[in-house]
Write a structure and sequence with these properties.
Two copies of one chain form a homodimer. In chain A, helix 3 crosses helix 12. Chain A has about 280 residues and is an alpha/beta fold. The first copy, chain A, contains twelve helices and ten strands. Chain A starts with a helix and ends with a helix. Chains A and B meet through helix 4, helix 5, helix 6, strand 6 and helix 8 of A and helix 4, helix 5, helix 6, strand 6 and helix 8 of B.
Chain lengths: ~280, ~280
């Protein structure tokens, strides 16, 4: 079964939660953290407990590489070991690396994140330099075993600066989305979605409806639930046919042990309960 | 002296060459490569010999992280050691990482590439998500010790897809360039250039003239000399007041030992002669 079909199936079985392992050592309970020689070791142990506690109820994990790069070589080792642990648990992994380069350099990024120590299933990519930034990944996509999420429409304050500019009578993000969808047709799975998905944020409901309407076959990675303010009602516009995308929450789950309603639970138990509540919030909206 | 002033001074003294350490093990002479236990070790030794042989005649080095990520953890160690060796030689380092993210994630990238194991002087960044992707780097820039090169106008085949779209009556890349230049004003050095520079490719001379005219205070990182087909006559439009930018060559220098005119020289001697020829080609155009 192709990767995109496996992801689709997991969403149908387990709901839409993408758990973001954007793990800053500062998110860890102090008592836990101080039991380790280094922050990199503490983060790895924390990630493993979170994964053990949630892998049966989340669709996919997204690992944000920036948090690991910030810890230097020890952090990269923790990154590699986190990915290896996820693979051991048969989890699907999105590496949130947002790489964007061309030609031989993009080939190197593809080798870096689709093989070897940093192997993931999906990676996020940034299209600023143009759609030829995507081509070096295609040989991996053609195997059916790998996929991309291309930055399309984000909801940060700066999104209007480039994504929101109007060219050819529509926002740049729609043009990017349409060009991405066209390239993705050749990598469609049985489920109808392509192995080239798109990252789309939660903005206003008019935009989200238009994005979904114009990109019907695109599987979405939707950040911003919880900590960044996205709600299930906005997200609902992106999801259809019971699938359509996954919704990421990172800090909201990783730091849920701090919330009064989880008082007395371990961080791993709190994360599980928080992820279940998020899943149900989206499923039953 | 601020970083951008030091870079300006080096260009005035040594010319415009930016030597790109985009080192693929396949670029190494076979006899040299097979003397090492691993490609990562061979690349590090190769880089050191190239650096020893060129640091007095090039303005700056650009290290393309993708080539090191592709070698996994061992590659990241070679990356860190290459940067450390450059610092030891008092070289100025551009880390070509093209990171582009927002808020806390961008803070993590800033910490990753401006401190610790992967510390560089300048890093390249991708602005697709908007100008707020740059702000987390500003505290480092404010010290006068760090700088950015923002992707503005590249010359790859896909550049028209986003950069070249016409919005507000001008190409997106000019809007990006102008917004970048405005943010850069607060980080201007004595030399008149800002610590926020721009990456601009060699396209046609009409475009290059317009880019320089509209972005007079921007220091440029110009890729594409040699292997990618840029010529000194196109580059000349970008350079003014004897400075204005640096011109990168990677493969053209690293693999110059294969050229007939360098037959019988070591790879390090060939690289030096090739870099000198490039410097003079640009200086005396």
């Amino acid at each position: 079964m192709k990767l995109i079909d496996r992801l689709h199936q997991r969403v149908m079985e387990k709901g839409h939660v993408c758990l973001g392992l954007d793990t800053d050592a500062a998110y860890l309970p102090e008592d836990f953290r101080k039991g380790f020689e280094s922050d990199a070791a503490a983060v790895l142990a924390f990630n493993k407990e979170i994964i053990d506690s949630t892998h049966d109820i989340v669709a996919v994990y997204k690992v944000q590489i920036a948090y690991y790069e910030a810890m230097g070589l020890a952090g990269m080792e923790t990154y590699a070991k986190t990915l290896a642990y996820l693979r051991e648990k048969q989890a699907i992994i999105i590496a949130d690396v947002k790489r964007g380069d061309i030609a031989k350099t993009a080939e190197m990024y593809a080798a870096a994140h689709f093989t070897g120590d940093f192997e993931a299933d999906f990676i996020t990519v940034s299209p600023y330099m143009g759609m030829d930034t995507l081509e070096p990944y295609f040989p991996y996509l053609a195997t059916g075993e790998k996929g991309l999420f291309v930055l399309v429409a984000t909801s940060n304050p700066g999104a209007p600066d480039i994504e929101g500019l109007i060219a050819d009578d529509q926002p740049v993000y729609l043009t990017v989305g349409e060009k991405t969808a066209k390239l993705g047709e050749q990598f469609a799975g049985e489920c109808g979605y392509s192995a080239i998905g798109g990252v789309v944020g939660c903005t206003n409901s008019q935009d989200t409806q238009r994005i979904r309407q114009r990109l019907p076959g695109m599987f979405f990675l939707i950040p911003g639930y919880g900590a960044q303010g996205g709600t299930a009602s906005e997200i609902a516009h992106y999801l259809h046919k019971g699938s359509g995308g996954v919704v990421n929450s990172s800090r909201g789950i990783l730091m849920s042990w701090k919330k009064p309603e989880h008082a007395g639970k371990s961080f791993a138990a709190a994360a599980r309960d928080e992820a279940i509540a998020m899943r149900d919030d989206i499923l039953f909206f």
